[in-house]
User: What shape does this take?
Amino acid sequence: MEIGFLFDSVSSVMLVIITSISFFVYIYSISYMSEDPYISRFMSYLSLFTFFMIILVTADNFLQLYAGWEGVGLCSYLLINFWFTRVLANKAALKAMIMNRIADIFFMFGLVLIFLVFKTTDFVIVFNLIPFILEDSTFFLVKSYKTIDLIAFFLFVGSIGKSAQIGFHTWLPDAMEGPTPVSALLHAATMVTAGIFLIIRCSFFFEFSENTLSLIFLFGSVTTFFSGFVALFQFDIKKVIAYSTCSQLGYMFISCGLSNYSVALFHLFNHAFFKALLFLSAGYIIHAFSDEQDMRKYGGYLLKIMPFTYFCFFLGSLAIMGFPFLTGFYSKEVIIEFAQKSYIIDSGFLYIISIASASLTGFYSWRLLFFCFLNPSINAHKPTYTLFLNNKVEFKDLMFYSMLSLAICSIIFGFLFSDIMINLGTPL
Assistant: This one.
């Protein structure tokens, strides 16, 4: 076994996401966590997470990828449980760890099977030898299966655990008990996309396993609709955005299931910026209201008091809805178009699911905006409002610069990178 690094187009895109989002979240955290006595521990955990995530996406073999995979799971546990005196944070961290471990066991099965069949874990060797094992079979649980189907299925289960698809989705909304910068970094932009990265990296396996491809777009289509529907009934501001993340990850799974991996990667890239913007904007409101997360207690004068935060929230909501010429438009609309033109299954089903999920996205995004900024609130805690009115600091701290940078990325990155990743400028 050797340690090696692979810097291809997939790894390069992931590195841009990880390093840029991590940088913005670090800057944001300096101000957000400034009054926390354990800020040094928090920044250490964030740095450790970034290290493991970079190891994961730059690995040139499955063993090294698995080391990074488990490392980000460990950092997720540590960061969700950062405020360890809170019982809910303890339970959420344990839930995230256990549910990820269940999926990781299948990933480990796939790893062992790859090593037994190919006698190596190196990506280049394994992917080049796949055509020679297409007719091989493996005995598993009193029945014989095609080896390629079995490996693809194990990798698929590992990916849906990390990316919080239906069946493994419940840990992601509960993980919102951690600090908001954690939600932005781990549970919107980087860690939950590791499952999509695994599918794209191992697309050679999935392309030879039609049954697993069918499972991928089936899980993706169910998750994107179900999560959008559940988000309509949430009142915790971070949980609404968390279910929104599950829904957008479902779109990426649909694209991968239709063998459009470049489009899935492009949506992953775009999604990271506007979802981080939404989380950091939500964190600003939560920070201003003394950690109050019930959006029914917001509203009132917030639009006048926090115009920049409203602008960021509004921009992020438009981007996630796929509003024309914002970042989300350039990838989300292409996924819906591919769903309509699909020849793999009945295109009508996928198209209806995609359009219905996009409609739900618009509905819960406007609902979120209304409750946070436009609703004439009668539930707000008056001392909190008074304290906030007397200490307005929207343009005076580092959080402002992080949000501004992500807002700019959410406007221009879709246009700048569309030709490079999915349009005429690509060799695909």
Observations:
- The chain has one domain: 9-421.
- The longest helix spans residues 87-118.
- DSSP finds 19 helices and two strands in the chain.
